């Protein structure tokens, strides 16, 4: 059966931990394995990227495969339509109904980064581009960040935590942070979802009006109940930092005021920027962030440059988990059908 | 002698069929051959691309070579001058007289996509950028779509037809289609040229004022005469669909009103959009299109999603024919002269 | 110790000549050596490029490595901050303090092209982006053109001269040329610096107000004194061409009127454009230029297309010297520390 890696909710924590085990092995490995030899992978970006682009490119090459970076809608390729039945007299020159199967004829795996538009959460949460990739693809699809989640980041996050502590029973704080834009909710969603799957006690500190999506929160609540761990949502900072083992800093936009930048009021910013004083209240916590991070707005230099920060190790683990995801999806895939076999099947 | 693959008219149908035979072999092949090992190829795009970019990139890598995608004039590289004797005080920062030989010193083959400007057909038909590549290059040049033709697409088209029927004596319809822009004539030119070379009866259905270039039509006429096949140009749709075996849908701009978008009048669009009703008049025809295609403007969903459509198979054949073109141009090339030999020659 | 290749002043002429010796060997070599197997290199461009991009990409691949081209600030990646302590509420979404170490965890070498902003020479000469790469990188850094220099170009330049004459005691003219923009001074700086290091007599012909940076000129003066060669700065053209063996044409911006385009007065342009008449005054000189070059503004067709021009050979040597720089930096590097060793070290 065709495997994808697109949403955490499709996996058990045991399955995710097995992928991370494989990433840990690959991290230590000095042996060259080339399970992707002869395979090409198209990593499609509708939004900018640094770590995701580099990690999947390097990971694919390290496993013997051929990575292609395609900037859809810019950088030499046109915009894509995803709505079924659309009359295509607008800006999009091609429908994903053609583009995705065509890429699947030329490549053995596809990745997609597609951010929300920031206009309507009701529409964005449907993830039309990712849904189209999953629907139309004949080869495995990797979600390289969608409106609802960033499962590749979550794998690297849990790997980074596992390298420092057994996550079960430890305290995980997701702390909202100021920004000049209404950022996507993918990373905060996935970070609390995987933390709750791993049996951590979860605290979310955020201003009123910045609650995460109810669907995600329902899964987090269920995970915590199943694991006997606690779940708390609060706007009390710095108190929320007390006793935490992992502090995950992240800015995201409000669903209530969808697409609007957070307040730039200096007092509000000061209250929510992650500072050394806050980190000192935690229990020798590590500080995590998915990067890119705006210094002295999201988090102070003193935190990023201090003993708490594991953000560069966390970023490095994007490479190892990217390899593990590629191995999971492609190393044991049955051989691609020949064109003759395909025609025969029809 | 230096070989290029730039215009259909430089080849006989036997030569083209031998390239397609090689593509068919490569399509079935499970053996890795690496005739391009140690070779780098620069694929230069002055216009956007999806299939062409991915197919040449994957094909080059699959044959052991190293593909470079260069977006000339955007994406990190400046615009190029092609006019001899130009005083370069405008926007172009480099002349192809330098850029092409330099690329030829670093790479073993070059590809160029260069669309018409849409300002003057008299100038566009001279294909100044492609002509400069051919003139200045010391390594094989591949035309990845110019003003006058898209021979790589034509190879994939004929391969797709050959996989379904022996083309000789069969009926081929090129049917014009609505669009929001005045699109290039490269694909319609090449599609009817190769169909006529392959001995098919050719019908071109287009509105008044949308005739193809007289030079191309003269060759098509000659091919049909030589093959004893018929050639018909008509504005009668849906009647033109009657009895066709291959329907090739495509929009293109008018030479008479050069660069102007076609009428957006709903009745005109309805008349020319390719519909299931039209396809039903044909003789169990296959529906072809080079992609990207604007659904429900150029062609209805019912056609693309119906039993007629072979557009994804046709796109896949871009990969196999790309490999065959690379093999044709480079697998038997003499070794590149050493710098010492080059200096000696001077 | 970590090696970089960022500024000519960090090297002796013997060290540079050894790198060029290695480039000459690689140019003649028909043997495949793959010292970069398993290594990925990220070439980061904040400005456009053709030769640099292609030469490092081809060189890396030819040595068995995996080149990544990253267009920072465009083409899919956001802008980067380099100022320590910055409050990042502007356009830059990431600090090089994170981006560079992260790239160093995923790649085994980094390149950076970062032009001056053209607003303040006092700020530009500090090369904030390159300085940040050097400061934060844990892997070798290559300067692919900064505000102050273009050492990779200088290597190819000296290699090209050495292929035609022993440089010591020969006459080298850097001749300023007209342009529509105030171009960076990197290439003229590096060209006279390496010529003076190689023991050539240096003449700089430029209009009043177009002197090179005093720091560079101090080193050039010292080199000439050490080598017993002459150094002359003049605005007398065409006289400056008399008796020259190497003419290096190049436009650059004025420090005095920083960022302002040179005069477009036809008489001024005519005086400074490099012409066949001027070349005929030289002593069978070769004509060099780093490319891209604006024909008939910087230099006349008659020079570029005449017997003097070695610009394409010079560009080809960018490939061979790129290989030699990669070998110098990476072929003998100690193995990258494992993550475990890194953590142990902390």
Please describe what this structure looks like.
Three copies of one chain form a homotrimer. Chain A has 346 residues and is an alpha/beta fold. Chain A has two domains: 8-149 and 317-345, Aspartate/ornithine carbamoyltransferase (Rossmann fold, 3-Layer(aba) Sandwich), CATH 3.40.50.1370; 165-309, 3-Layer(aba) Sandwich (Rossmann fold). Helix content of chain A is 39%, strand content 14%. Chain A contains 13 helices and eleven strands. A five-stranded parallel β-sheet of chain A has the order 9-8-7-10-11. In chain A, strands 2-1-5-6 form a four-stranded parallel β-sheet, sandwiched between helices. In chain A, strands 3-4 form a two-stranded parallel ribbon. In chain A, strand 1 (40-45), helix 2 (51-62) and strand 2 (66-71) form a beta-alpha-beta unit. In chain A, helix 2 packs across helix 12 (311-331), helix 3 (96-106) packs across helix 5 and helix 6 packs across helix 7. Mean pLDDT of chain A is 92; it is low at 333-346. At the A-B interface, strand 2, strand 4 and helix 3 of A face helix 2 and helix 12 of B.
């Amino acid at each position: 059966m065709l495997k994808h890696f697109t949403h955490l909710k499709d996996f058990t924590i045991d399955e995710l931990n097995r992928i991370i085990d494989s990433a840990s092995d690959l991290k230590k490995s000095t042996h060259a394995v080339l399970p992707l030899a002869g395979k090409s992978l198209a990593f499609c970006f509708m939004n900018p990227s640094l770590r995701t682009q580099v990690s999947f490119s390097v990971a694919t090459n390290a496993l013997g495969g051929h990575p292609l970076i395609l900037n859809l809608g810019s950088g030499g390729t046109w915009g894509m339509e995803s709505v079924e039945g659309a009359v295509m007299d607008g800006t999009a020159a091609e429908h994903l109904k053609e583009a995705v199967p065509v890429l699947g004829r030329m490549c053995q795996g596809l990745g997609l980064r597609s951010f929300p538009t920031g206009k309507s959460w009701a529409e964005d949460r449907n993830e039309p581009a990712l849904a189209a990739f999953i629907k139309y693809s004949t080869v495995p699809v990797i979600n390289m960040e969608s409106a609802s989640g960033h499962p590749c980041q979550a794998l690297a996050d849990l790997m980074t935590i596992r390298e420092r502590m057994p996550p079960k029973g430890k305290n995980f704080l997701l702390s909202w942070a100021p920004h000049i834009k209404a950022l996507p909710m993918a990373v905060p969603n996935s970070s609390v979802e995987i933390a709750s799957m791993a049996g951590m006690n979860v605290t979310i500190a955020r201003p009123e009006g910045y609650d995460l999506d109810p669907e995600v929160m329902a899964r987090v609540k269920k995970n915590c109940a199943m694991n006997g761990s606690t779940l708390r949502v609060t706007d009390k900072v710095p108190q929320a930092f007390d006793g935490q083992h992992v502090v995950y800093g992240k800015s995201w936009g409000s669903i209530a005021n969808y697409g609007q930048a957070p307040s730039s009021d200096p007092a509000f910013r000061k209250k929510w920027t992650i500072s050394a004083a806050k980190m000192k209240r935690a229990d020798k916590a590590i500080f995590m962030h998915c990067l890119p991070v705006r210094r002295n707005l999201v988090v102070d230099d003193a935190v990023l440059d201090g003993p708490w920060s594991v953000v560069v190790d966390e970023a490095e683990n994007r490479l190892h988990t990217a390899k593990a995801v590629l191995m999971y999806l492609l190393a044991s895939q049955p051989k691609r059908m020949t064109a003759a076999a395909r025609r025969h099947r029809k």
